[in-house]
Give the backbone structure.
Amino acid sequence: MVIVGGASALEYVAKLANAAAKKWQRQTGGVVDICDPDRRDKLLKVMPVDEVWGIGRRMTAHLMAMNVRTAWDLAQADAWTLRKQYSVVVEKTARELRGTPCLELEEAAPPRQEICCSRMFGTRLKTIEPIRESVATYVARACEKLRAQGSLCKRVRVSIRTGMFNPDEAKYAKGVICELPYPTDDTRLVTRYAVAGLEHVFRDGYSYSKAEVLLLDLRQRGEFTDDLFAEVQPEAAERVMSVLDQINHRWGRGTLRPASVPIAPGWGMRREMKSPSFTTRWEELWRVNCF
């Protein structure tokens, strides 16, 4: 256990304290308090330089040649010399050890204000049925992201377009914003309005290459201030979406999905030249045959 005081992000010192708490557990009781500068300096003086995070075996040998044997010695070394002879990383390490924060704490990313899902079709589509399937699929993915950040949306924009670079194809692009009856994260409701918007903008006689779904007017729960008699999302819808997400999280995306989302769409993106997923899919791991 490490106790760190102040707002400075002294990550290197905290990692040293953590190592000390493990190394000398009997003497420290598993707790190292580095709020006191004197205790922090005492820790630096007894910790070997190779215990410092980021100082490897080769760098340790170089520092030993400079008579830098402890974390305290590294903290007292000239930062500019370390940067010139080695790297800016070693310089920042020394500055952190002497109390100058160089690594900023990463704050949690704020919720997105818009969520978009868009793909090119694998083939040109001339009828509305497969485009309707694609819009339903994109809505399902976008709403999944919406629920993951705990937001609700009040509007959805659906748009379609043809290819824009073939001079022999007629050009067409159109989008429409659909106002939802109440703030929601219900995939079924958003799909119904998005499909209605698609039917409004679709025109026969064109070869479509792309569809896009954009969730707009996103806010966290409780941020919408409607009047007392405004319609709100039913609790049953929230329970259904919660169960859907739990099942898909446990058994894989697409295990449970709306009926409007196809299993193996014929309009999906072409992936003949896609790189194998060696690090994320068991079935695509390299196989080595021994003879």
About this structure: DSSP finds ten helices and six strands in the chain.
